[in-house]
Amino acid sequence: MRNKLFFLFILIASSCSKNASHHSIAVPDLIQAEKTRANISGRILLYDGENIAATDNSGITVSIDNSTVTTQTGADGKWTLDSIPKGTYDISYSKPGYGTGKIMGIFHAATNHATTLIARSESMNIVSSLDISNIKTASFSSATWLVNAINLGLIRNGLFIEPIFNNPTSKNKPVRLFFSDKNVVSFSNYLVTEKIFTSGKDEVKETLTFDLKWFESKGFKLGQPVYIKAYGDGYKDDTYENANNGLPVYPSLASSGSPTISVVIPEK
Length: 268
Description:
mainly beta; Immunoglobulin-like; elongated; 268 residues; 15% helix
């Protein structure tokens, strides 16, 4: 009896050994797991301080937040994160000398290994190098706008605001203004922000106007002092929300801003 059992065991073992490499049975949940992994791909383009696109977009680090998954862009700015499981992801990207960026809430179905392609190309500005030395302001009244008021039927009161900086070219540069009702104002401590484009000349232009309706719509009161600080910014809109505190991040701002100025909002 023992010899028969031993022979049967050998026969079964031999049969399994012969077929193991050709007829192995995969665990069903492993098959499913393999079906729900696929690539995520996109493209990021670099821009300089004159809004000119770079010819080489390589070296941008692209990562999935809260993970060790990372890759880098090629010269064409394209990137691919390989074999990512199904899920919803926040993706970060950065390069020394440039701002950071975020692509929030990317749903990755990964069905049958289908790549999730982020169709819209992202843009990265070089960090601004503008050194804003001052901010000039001047109030204007309906008398200043008399001709326009007659022609357009408009009566306007408010402020001209002109950041001053050295600009070797005549091309307008992007500047972000931060407003507050307190004298401590910065990119992280403000009530209102506004992005403008200006040549930086030591003059005030009627194109850079903030009328009383604008101040009132932002919660300021007429006749109160307002504090303003200016930073060089990037051309492309690259603002995103900090996931930890919900505050806006302005990745392309110059490392330092203008002196803070104060001015009283004109009254009607």
